[in-house]
Specification:
Blueprint lengths: L1 H5 L6 H7 L8 H13 L2 H15 L5 H15 L3 H15 L5 H25 L9 H16 L8 H17 L8 H15 L6 H22 L9 H14 L5 H13 L2 H4 L3 H12 L9 H18 L16 H10 L13 H22 L6 H14 L5 H15 L12 H7 L4 H4 L5 H8 L6 H15 L4 H17 L4 H17 L4 H16 L4 H4 L5 H14 L5 H14 L5 H13 L5 H17 L6 H13 L6 H15 L17
Protein name: Tubulin-specific chaperone D
GO biological process, one term: bicellular tight junction assembly
InterPro entries: ARM-like, ARM-type_fold, TBCD, TBCD_C
């Protein structure tokens, strides 16, 4: 900047400074891929920039710089094609044999990009690629893989870098339609792709994803260019070998191999899938199933779902088609079953809720398949299937993980407001379009609980969605994240306030809530937060209308489910939450109150001291709030017993006080059940 301003000797200095200012050069990708092209537009700078990239940047220690340099050479090759072909490419080919790993890696990437750049320019100009790449250059590019293989440079510490680079080379040379059909190098390339996918578990974690993606892209390009016969059909022997081998590798005990080969099957072109679709879908479907030995293989299930979705897009849909050729009425229901089944994947391990990756992939797959069918063959979408899709996605949109909730909301809105022909059989479409106008797609930040929950709770008013939205909300309201709990609770209570004077709506809501509880008994992922949700709702008087009626069915069923949930449980968190629900249930008069008090008296003698103390404390607070539960003449004594007894003392001491409390409250004293002797005798 100083030189340009003071001396004025730099050609086009002002123009370059305007484009390459302080902020523009702060972004590396922008520098290498955009500004470099602008500067190279001035002939004085084109060749020196190319030379600098080849001399200094291709062998840089930072892998990102090497990749950006290769892409920059791709762009610049189209500015100076003769120089790139005659001087740059031969130099890069010699660098691919370097002893230095970084130089070797950068040079292979650069060879791939320069060759692709020259091919694209030749196509634009309507010239054969041979006009830029002579026989020596083509031979040099073909030999790279064999030379690296002979020197065993795919093995050891730098092997993963070289595998990545050569996969990029395979992709670019295939896309550049190099004349290698029937050549032995094709088998060499295929071996490298297969071996890379098979040994992904040996690749270091930070670059595993990159290597996997490069191998899958290389495979797609290779198959498209070299495996089709002149007629456009697949080579039968090649197809048989490839599909059989990949389906066998889907059963590998290594999770990463399953990931790689799932994506590889998803990347196969249409002509290779023709006649084998059922086999491929069955193999991928088996990967998505959870078995005891591979329960933690969430990444392979995610990648298999991505592959199923991609295969469906590749083969297309046709009513009355053959199930081995296209998606049709014979296989579409099975595909939907697989995708919907994966929305129940809540696997957790040391990494957290890894099932969320699977659920996100399943939602994307459901969206892509439904939009494809809606566009081309809407009659293949059954009403029951569409309802399941919308309801399950709505459930995910009301759950506790921000990222999953935002993704689900985007899928829901896309299905509701699909461009072109609308998706058929969407339940309550008219009401949904009013509740979720198209403008919400762009304006609402579904990641933010404060914006998402007030909108998603509107679905509780639509019977078809109520069950699944409640299932998701129960997990959010009873969760641990402060912001999620606050806004989901506020939104739920806001909805409850609106139906307080509508007995029919409240009955429907209460019945659905208890149905969620019953369906998820002993499923701690749902039942523990659901107990917390019920506690909050009872404490906030959401069911006061039911409390006006003696032995209301809601109270009776709620108590029975809570008793079933905590039977023989040693989970302190679950027991504490149930204590709060039993305390809330004493507001229901009649037999429900009596049973709740009896259950609380039993918990006052629980083997865990912390549960005894919690029960006494919560019962004390409940009686302060609902003093009409106990006769006035004994209330003071009940409160004194609860407040002054050391409930964490020895059980025999506590039991006497508990029995006295039972007498005061008018509930029968619990009887000790004698334990059977060692031989089953008394």
């Amino acid at each position: 900047q100083e030189n340009v301003g003071r001396q004025g000797t730099f050609p086009h200095g002002i123009d370059i400074l305007t484009a390459a200012d302080y902020f523009a050069v702060g972004n590396r990708a922008n520098c290498f891929l955009v500004i470099s092209m602008f500067v190279a537009g001035f002939p004085e700078y084109t060749q020196p920039m190319i030379d600098h990239l080849v001399t200094r940047k291709i062998s840089h220690w930072d892998g990102v710089i090497r990749e950006l340099s290769a892409k920059a050479l791709h762009n610049l090759a189209q500015r100076a094609p003769e120089y790139s072909a005659a001087h740059v490419l031969p130099r890069l080919l010699s660098m691919t044999q370097s002893l230095d790993l970084h130089t070797r890696h950068g040079a292979v990437l650069a060879c791939a990009e320069v060759a692709r750049g020259l091919y694209r320019l030749a196509v634009q100009e309507g010239r054969p690629v041979a006009s830029y790449l002579d026989a020596a250059a083509v031979q040099g590019l073909k030999q790279i893989h064999q030379q690296l293989y002979d020197r065993q440079l795919y093995r050891g510490l730098g092997g993963e870098l070289m595998r990545h680079a050569v996969c990029v080379l395979i992709e670019n040379l295939s896309l550049s339609k190099m004349p290698f059909r029937g050549d032995a190098v094709i088998d060499g390339w295929q071996w490298l792709i297969n071996d890379t996918l098979r040994s992904l578990h040996l690749t270091s974690g930070h670059c595993r994803q990159q290597v996997k993606e490069a191998a899958v892209l290389a495979l797609a390009a290779l198959c498209n260019e070299y495996y089709a016969l002149e007629t456009g059909e697949a080579d039968p022997a090649r197809q048989e070998e490839l599909i059989r081998q990949y389906l066998a590798d889907l059963r590998s005990p290594e999770e990463m191999a399953r990931c790689g080969f799932s994506l590889a099957l998803g990347a196969l072109p249409h002509f290779l899938l023709r006649g084998r679709l059922q086999q491929v879908l069955a193999g991928l479907g088996a990967v998505t199933a959870i078995c005891p030995e591979d329960v933690s293989f969430a990444e392979s299930r995610r990648d298999a779902l991505k592959a199923i979705s991609r295969v469906c897009q590749t083969v297309g849909v046709r009513t009355g088609g053959a199930p081995d050729e296209v998606v049709c009425e014979e296989n579409v229901s099975q595909i939907y079953r697989t995708l919907l089944g994966c929305l129940r994947d809540y696997t957790t391990d040391s990494r957290g809720d890894v099932g969320a990756w699977v659920r996100e992939a399943a939602m994307t797959g459901l969206m892509d398949l439904t939009l494809l069918l809606g566009r081309e063959q809407p009659e293949l979408i059954e009403a029951s299937v569409c309802e399941q899709v919308m309801c399950r996605v709505a459930q995910q949109a009301s759950e506790k993980i921000d990222r999953v909730r935002a993704h689900a909301a985007r899928v829901f809105m896309t299905l509701l407001h699909s461009d072109g022909s609308p998706v058929p059989h969407v339940p309550h479409r008219g009401e949904l379009e009013k509740l979720f106008p198209r403008s919400d797609v762009a304006s609402v930040n579904w990641n933010a609980p404060s914006q998402a929950f007030p909108r998603i709770t509107r679905l509780l008013g639509l019977p078809a969605y109520r069950y699944h939205v409640l299932l998701g909300l129960a997990v959010s309201v009873g969760g641990l994240t402060e912001s999620t709990v606050r806004y989901s609770t506020q939104s739920l209570f806001e909805y409850m306030k609106g139906i307080q004077n509508d007995p029919q709506a409240l009955e429907g809501f209460g019945g659905t809530l208890l149905q969620v509880f019953e369906d998820n008994l002993l499923n701690d992922r749902v039942s523990v937060p659901l107990l917390k949700t019920l506690d909050q709702m009872l404490a906030n008087g959401c069911f006061e209308l039911f409390a006006a009626q003696e032995d209301h069915p809601f109270g009776v069923r709620l108590l029975a489910l809570c008793e079933e949930e905590i039977k023989k449980s040693k989970d302190v968190q679950k027991l504490r939450s149930s204590v709060a629900v039993f305390c809330g249930a004493v507001q229901f008069p009649g037999g429900v109150r009596k049973r709740a008090l009896l259950r609380l008296c039993l918990l006052l003698c629980h083997p865990f001291p912390v549960i005894r103390k919690t029960t006494a404390s919560q019962l004390y607070e409940t009686l302060l709030t609902h003093s009409d539960i106990v006769a006035e003449d004994v209330l003071d004594e009940v409160m004194t017993v609860l407040g002054t007894t050391a409930w964490d003392a020895e059980l025999p001491l506590v039991r006497g006080q508990r029995n006295h409390l039972c007498d005061l409250l008018g509930v029968p004293r619990p009887q000790l059940v004698p334990k059977p002797g060692p031989r089953g005798g008394p």
